[in-house]
Amino acid sequence: MNDNQLLRYSRHILLPQIGYEGQEKIVNSHALIVGAGGLGAPVALYLAASGVGKLTLCDFDVVDLTNLQRQIIHTTQSVGVNKAVSAQHAIDAINPDIVVQTIQQKSTEVEFAQLAENVDVVIDCSDNFATRYALNRVCLKLKKPLVSGAAIGFEGQITVFDFRNASSPCYHCLYPDVGSDAEMRCADNGVFAPLVGMIGTAQAAEALKLIMHLGESLQGRLLLLDTLSMQWRTIKLSRDHACAVCS
Known about the structure:
- By secondary structure, the chain is α/β, with parallel strands linked by helices.
- The protein has a single domain (3-236), classed as Rossmann fold (3-Layer(aba) Sandwich).
- 37% of the residues lie in helices and 19% in strands.
- The protein has helices at residues 3-8, 10-13, 19-27, 40-50, 83-94, 109-116, 129-142, 171-174, 186-189, 193-212; strands spanning 30-34, 54-58, 99-103, 121-124, 145-152, 155-162, 221-226, 231-236.
- Strands 3-2-1-4-5-6-7-8 form an eight-stranded mixed β-sheet, with helices on both faces.
């Protein structure tokens, strides 16, 4: 790290649990963020501000006026712009040291595998089951840690599937694919604006911890948030030995 980076990240370096060595791991890391919307916005902002050296952002959608209520990485001037590109502009303004790769088309599972092959962590900020199942299979195959988040209405959840650990459950263990096409989308159901920030920020924290091998991750635990009662609950997760994906 150069002198400017040492100054920029000094509040991390001052933490004895992180120090110079931990921050150097962050600076040399590469994260894949799938989705640059409500969850992806705080994830991208905090990973960039924290110094993650390279970010690959995937989003084929464009910014809509209705997104601005919660997708804080985008501005009014971004309406009509691809979300990954809009996010890149915000990241460049926050931390010009970050290398950003934008994927502006809908990716297939094969393409996700190619993107994930050389990253340190994958953060699932998507809003549909098809993408979540695909990322789960890709990360399981490549033994990549996957930080999964979701939010709708006033409720959200976050967990980690760390496939470097053979005992880790997978997304399919939590939500088996029964072939249903039913989706819960913000466009149809609404979402409380700060909720996605709270879940997304937690995803960023888990991703940084995984990069640094720091603390205890959410592997084996599902963290649930109800913002109406402002209560967090934790549910233990274990591997389903009958799982069609990871068993």
